[in-house]
Design goal:
This protein is of the alpha/beta class. It is built from 13 helices and eleven strands. The protein has a domain of 239 residues: 3-Layer(aba) Sandwich (Rossmann fold). It holds the Pfam family ATPase.
Length: 373
Amino acid sequence: MSEDDSDDDWFESAFEDDAEAADSPSSESVDSDSASQSPSDADDAFDSEAPDDAFSADTGDAADAFGGDDVEDPFSGDATEESFGDGDSDGSFGGDTAEDPFSDDAGGGSLFDGDFGSAMASAGPGGGGGSSTDFDEEDYESEIPRIDLGISGLDNMIQGGIPERHLMVSIGSPGTGKTTFGLQFLHHGLQQGESAVFITLEQSREAILDTANERGWKFDRYEREDQLAIVDLDPVEMANSLDNIRGELPVLIREFDAERLVLDSVSLLEMMYDDQSKRRTEVFDFTRSLKEAGVTTMLTSEADDENPYTSRHGIIEYLTDAVFVLQYVRGDASETRLAVEIQKIRNANHSRATKPYEITLDGIDVYEQASIF
C-alpha cells in the first residue's frame, strides 16, 4: 500500500465514523470550558510538560520568532505584514490548483469522502453590550464587504465590521472561551443563511454538537440541512497528511459554498513540528491555502505561558489579518475577570481598549462601556 493511499484511508475512516455517530444519539457528556468558564479537557491537554525543543522559540521578539537559516524565511526581504493579508481568493498567493476530488480522475479518492464530502458536493449556496462605542473615528475607507462576528459588544468595538475573507485568530489561555468564540461566530452566520465549516483538532464531533445545542444554537439541524459541516481530525494524522489536506480543502470549501470556517485549534497543529523553521513554513502554507479558498476564517490558539498577548509559538499572529486576545485579569482584591483586547484588524478601525466579558449560556457578552475593575 502506498503512502498516499494510507493517508486517504485514515481520512475516509474518520468521516465514516462521523456518519455512524450521526445516525445514533450521542451519549457523550460535554464538560466544555466555554460552558462552565473553566478549562476544558482539551485545554488541560496543553498543561502537560512538552519536550523542550518543541517550544523553544522566543515568542517575545518578532524577529527572533522567525529566525533560522535552514529554510527560506517567508517573512524576510520586502515581505510586510500586509503581504499576508491582501491576497484575494483567486489564488494571488500562487500555487497550482488542487485536483478536484469529485472528478472521476481524482487519484486515490478524496480525503474528505464521507459526511463532509457529500455535504460539500450536494449543498447549494446558503443563503447586547451597548449601542455606543468608546472611540470616535471615521469609518475606514474600503470597498471590502464587512461582516459581524455575532458577539455582543465586541462588534460595536469594530467600526464597520470585519472585512470578508479575512483570516482571524483568537488567542487565550485555557478556559477563556476560545471554542465558544468560534462557535458563536459560526452561529451568527448560520442564522443569516450562510454555510459554515467547523474543524476541531481537540474535541469530537459529538462534543461540539452538544456544546452548541445546549446553548440553543441547533447545530444538529444546520448539519442535517447541509448548511454546516463539523469535521473532527486527529492532529497527528492531519500533520502527516497536511499536503493532501492543504490541496483539497480550498476546493471543497468552494464546493460547499462555505462563507465561514473555524479551526480549533492551530496550536495542536503547530506542536507537531519540533523544528521552528519547519513549523512556520507548514503553518504559513496552511493559512495561505485558507486565504486562497476565499472563506472568512477564525482560528483559535493557545496563549504563551509567559505572555498572554502572544500565541504559544509566536507565529500565527503574524499570518492573520485580525488578532483577538482573551485573557484573565486579576485585580488588587484578588478578583479575577475575563477581558478581551483587539490587537489588530487590517483594513478596519477598532477600539484598542481592554474590556471585560462573560461566558454565559447565551455565549460571550463583551461589556464595551465597562472598565475591567
